[in-house]
């Protein structure tokens, strides 16, 4: 998406501050494993805007999305929606808040009951929250199917009777049924072929314009994200390592990890960062229960310096918009050097391994 207008932070719908989510427990005498899935994340999504959240599998994207909706326990930090701190909401207030935030998953089967006709699945939240009569619910379902480009007669079909793209349209209809302000799309188009991806993205764009929705759009595929996101945040091992306007991040990535991810987009793709250099991302994501000291990316970074092994880099502004957490921003590239031995990044013209 080419619109990279400066964000008016007073108009943010979602504000996430120093968010932390852990799994596991320290156990007796601290000998258990604590996995830091989200480790001090800050991000904002403007009203009617789309923030793309990218990063390798296991970097914490889904956990972050689920924490925003309070679907996993929050260990620390703040989530504000429309100015309200939702971190500590309980009971009825939490249910009310959840109505304003919905999630669309990669696999619509997780939100659609295979044994119910889709009209039932779409009507379920309406009946629960708005206490509609069966007749009114049916009319509303027909309206929602129309909104997502499906005929009303499809209400009587089962999920298995739909194609992948149609099922995702049904899941979107269900998500927008209660007029949410934020929709978290977690790999929502990742399982679809390219032309169906484009159709579903066009639908999401259409709905954003019609209903003023904001999206947190999670995807491991950077090419997809460029088409829909106004801003992008790049996640690595529980941290946001770079964020900013989509065009700036894609055209001038500041973090070595972002550069490596962008190198994974085939050169012929129009979204190629165009640096002419391919960066090979080797090695695996470190164990989030045992992260490296200093910079999280140090075990795979070709520019790692001594300081990177000891001190976590501060977040600093980037020319052209956004922020990056990398010592190169403060010490300058002249001090960078010494490719790491094992697990380093190097090489030219080889596609990096970036797992979905
Ligand atoms: N319910 C859970 N219990 C324990 N560990 C989890 C749970 N959910 C996610 N994780 C771990 O948290 C880390 C981040 O996972 P996830 O948020 O799914 O990443 P992503 O969506 O970027 O692939 C991974 O190491 C994953 O194994
Ligand atoms: S240069 Fe240092 S701080 Fe920057 S990404 Fe590499 S290891 Fe991290
Ligand atoms: Mg995920």
From TrEMBL:
One of the GO biological process terms: peptide transport
Pfam families linked: ABC_tran (PF00005), oligo_HPY (PF08352)
Keyword list, A-Z: ATP-binding, Nucleotide-binding, Transport
GO molecular function: ATP binding; ATP hydrolysis activity
SMART domains found in the cross-reference section: AAA (SM00382)
InterPro entries (alphabetical): AAA+_ATPase (IPR003593), ABC_transp_ATP-bind (IPR050319), ABC_transporter-like_ATP-bd (IPR003439), ABC_transporter-like_CS (IPR017871), Oligopep_ABC_C (IPR013563), P-loop_NTPase (IPR027417)
SUPFAM superfamilies on file: P-loop containing nucleoside triphosphate hydrolases
Domain ABC transporter: residue ranges: 14-262
Family note: Belongs to the ABC transporter superfamily.
PANTHER family the record matches: D,D-DIPEPTIDE TRANSPORT ATP-BINDING PROTEIN DDPF-RELATED, TRANSPORT ATP-BINDING PROTEIN
Protein name (Swiss-Prot/TrEMBL): Oligopeptide/dipeptide ABC transporter ATP-binding protein
Organism: Pseudonocardia alni (Amycolata alni)
């Amino acid at each position: 998406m080419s619109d990279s207008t400066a964000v008016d932070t007073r108009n943010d719908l979602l504000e996430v501050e120093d968010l932390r989510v852990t799994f596991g427990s320290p156990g007796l005498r601290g000998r258990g494993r604590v996995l830091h899935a989200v480790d001090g994340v800050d991000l904002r999504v403007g009203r009617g805007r789309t923030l793309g959240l990218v990063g390798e599998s296991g970097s914490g994207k889904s956990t972050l999305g689920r924490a925003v909706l309070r679907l996993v326990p929050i260990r620390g930090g703040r989530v504000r929606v429309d100015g309200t701190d939702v971190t500590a909401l309980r009971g009825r207030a939490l249910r009310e808040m959840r109505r304003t935030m919905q999630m669309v998953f990669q696999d619509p089967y997780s939100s659609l009951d295979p044994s119910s006709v889709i009209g039932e699945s779409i009507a379920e939240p309406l009946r629960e929250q708005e206490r509609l009569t069966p007749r009114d619910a049916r009319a509303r379902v027909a309206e929602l199917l129309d909104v997502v480009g499906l005929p009303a007669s499809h209400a009587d079909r089962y999920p298995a009777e739909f194609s992948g793209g149609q099922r995702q349209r049904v899941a979107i209809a269900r998500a927008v049924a209660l007029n949410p302000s934020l929709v978290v799309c977690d790999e929502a188009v990742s399982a679809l072929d390219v032309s169906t991806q484009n159709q579903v993205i066009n639908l999401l764009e259409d709905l954003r314009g019609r209903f003023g929705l904001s999206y947190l759009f999670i995807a491991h595929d950077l090419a997809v994200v460029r088409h829909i996101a106004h801003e992008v945040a790049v996640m690595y091992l529980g941290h946001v390592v770079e964020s900013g306007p989509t065009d700036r991040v894609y055209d001038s990535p500041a973090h070595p990890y972002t550069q490596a991810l962008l190198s994974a987009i085939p050169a012929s793709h129009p979204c190629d960062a165009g640096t002419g250099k391919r960066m090979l991302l080797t090695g695996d994501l470190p164990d989030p229960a045992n992260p490296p000291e200093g910079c999280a990316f140090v075990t795979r970074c070709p520019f790692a310096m001594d300081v990177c092994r000891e001190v976590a880099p501060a977040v600093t502004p980037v020319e052209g918009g956004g922020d990056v957490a990398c010592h190169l921003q403060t010490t300058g590239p002249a001090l960078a050097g010494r490719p790491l031995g094992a697990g380093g990044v190097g090489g030219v013209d080889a596609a990096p391994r970036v797992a979905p």
